[in-house]
């Protein structure tokens, strides 16, 4: 199964937010998202004993995924709930004597309204791309 992970950064007046979006090209309804603000990250960091700071977290995820191509001692693991409302995305690494979960993110399925907006955005993007190449 081929999945795409996109990490967007937004800066509001009060707080920075990273949004982790996971999608599957073959299934436009397969879209899961996790908005992560500093306050949420502090809880996640405490729960999972993470050592990187909030601003470095997306880069650490991207670097881990990029390094998968060169390493046989790491992999990604995903699981979906029976009702398809949650997708658990895990980064797994091999230690000297066992496999460990480096970080686990729980992404939520988009609501119906958010999914419609996402699909409209995809259609518009495809139209722009087709105009550029015609």
UniProtKB/TrEMBL annotation:
<dbReference type="Pfam" id="PF16531">
    <property type="entry name" value="SAS-6_N"/>
</dbReference>
<keyword id="KW-0175">Coiled coil</keyword>
<keyword id="KW-0206">Cytoskeleton</keyword>
<feature type="domain" description="Spindle assembly abnormal protein 6 N-terminal">
    <location>
        <begin position="7"/>
        <end position="107"/>
    </location>
</feature>
<protein>
    <submittedName>
        <fullName>SAS-6_N domain-containing protein</fullName>
    </submittedName>
</protein>
<dbReference type="GO" id="GO:0005813">
    <property type="term" value="C:centrosome"/>
</dbReference>
<keyword id="KW-0131">Cell cycle</keyword>
<dbReference type="InterPro" id="IPR038558">
    <property type="entry name" value="SAS-6_N_sf"/>
</dbReference>
<keyword id="KW-0963">Cytoplasm</keyword>
<dbReference type="InterPro" id="IPR032396">
    <property type="entry name" value="SAS-6_N"/>
</dbReference>
């Amino acid at each position: 199964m081929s999945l795409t992970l996109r990490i967007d950064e937004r800066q509001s007046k009060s707080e920075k937010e990273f949004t982790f979006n996971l999608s599957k090209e073959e299934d436009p309804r397969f879209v899961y998202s996790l908005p992560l603000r500093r306050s949420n990250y502090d809880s996640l960091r405490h729960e999972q004993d993470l050592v990187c700071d909030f601003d470095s977290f997306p880069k650490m995820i991207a670097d881990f995924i990029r390094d998968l191509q060169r390493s046989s001692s790491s992999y990604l693991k995903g699981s979906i709930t029976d009702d398809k409302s949650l997708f658990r995305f895990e980064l797994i690494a091999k230690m000297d004597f066992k496999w460990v979960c480096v970080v686990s993110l729980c992404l939520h399925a988009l609501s119906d309204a958010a999914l419609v907006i996402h699909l409209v955005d995809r259609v518009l993007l495809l139209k722009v791309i087709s105009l550029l190449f015609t």
